[in-house]
């Protein structure tokens, strides 16, 4: 199991957190993206607010779009960003 994961933030997620990326040390109980989101929510108010409605976010694990139930095993990087719309 991956013990640390580099998380890269984009758009308003990055702006609200005040950082582009961070390395998160994962507890043994965190094995999916959904569990990671729950873990991040426990890190403080800003995280809790950002991840309150995960339907507003997209996740790419090692540059591949994935769902919340996707396993983190062996992953190096998770990108979190709002959906992009064109015009």
What share of the residues lie within helices? 25-40%
Distance between the termini: 41 Å
Give me the strand/helix succession: EHEHHEEE
Strand content: 25-35%
Structure classification: alpha+beta
Number of helices: 3
How large, in whole angstroms, is the Cα Rg?
12 Å
- Tell me the number of strands: 5
Compute the average pLDDT: 93
Write down the overall geometry: globular
Q: What's the story with the biggest beta sheet?
A: 5 strands, mixed
Strand order of the largest sheet: 2-1-5-3-4
Low-confidence stretches: none
Briefly characterize the structure.
This protein has helices spanning 11-17, 33-41, 45-50, and strands at residues 4-9, 21-25, 58-61, 64-66, 77-81.
Task: Tell me about this structure.
The structure is a single chain. The protein has a 5-stranded mixed β-sheet with strand order 2-1-5-3-4. It has helices spanning 11-17, 33-41, 45-50; strands at residues 4-9, 21-25, 58-61, 64-66, 77-81. The chain has 87 residues and is an alpha+beta fold. The mean pLDDT is 93. Strand 3 and strand 4 (64-66) form a beta hairpin. The protein contains 3 helices and 5 strands; from the N terminus they run E-H-E-H-H-E-E-E.
SSE topology sketch:
Layout: E1 4-9, H1 11-17, E2 21-25, H2 33-41, H3 45-50, E3 58-61, E4 64-66, E5 77-81
State the main characteristics.
single chain, 87 residues, alpha+beta, five-stranded mixed beta sheet, 5 strands, globular
